[in-house]
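So, can you check this record?

>
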Amino acid sequence: MTSHSSKDSTARERLRAARAEQERRDRRRKRLFVAITAVAVLAAGTGVGVAVQTHRAASDKPYAAPAHSSGPDGTVIVYGKPDAKATLQVYEDFRCPICASLEHSAGSTIQQLADQGKYRIEYHFGAFLDGNLGGHGSRTALNAAGAALNESAAKFKAFHDVLYANQPEESNDGFADTDTLLALAAKVPGLKTAAFTKAVRDQTYEPWVQKVSDAFYRSDVTGTPTVKLNGKTLEVVKQDGQTVTGAEFSTLVDQALGS
């Protein structure tokens, strides 16, 4: 939807500025991660053991990946038909305002194409906005998303959509509150089981959250949202800072698939 109002213009400028700042900070953090990793590799080559702590102290909880997770260490969340010939990789952070904007503008179409078998979706999550903005809402929301995935991929997807529909301002660490997350989970029929509630309150999947976040940093992605179809990046944020509509997203998909 195009608007010429000053309010919408300001919102577009804010989205564009937020994305630019987010990408700048993420590139800097990624360079640091690569540099630390290189030092560790060099030290290991000389027979010196080095413990590298890149993000957060290791949890004392036992590692457990949610049921229905995929990929190395269960760090990938898959939604859609397993026999789909194409793969849509979506990189997000639950506190990312532009991720929410994309969900609002094209989310229903993204899901619809997956449900039709055009592709299957692989979700990859970062938690860098906790470091950039302070707090731990990205991580706490991701732990809750893991608890939803443990119920089913469909429950995860529904909860994912509810989180973005109710995302606080990025400066407000609202997702750090487990009561808030549980209240939002109640919007997904059948999700708020005793097991789900316990996993959210106890942060059961905290070690998994760390592995998911680490996998994000090892990727070539430097900002969110990033969307790739069979490895080809789709430009889901336009020059004016707005995210694509559902129709525009469908066109990007058709162009990438050559259909």
Q: What stands out?
A: The domain at 6-257 is CATH 3.40.30.10 (Glutaredoxin).
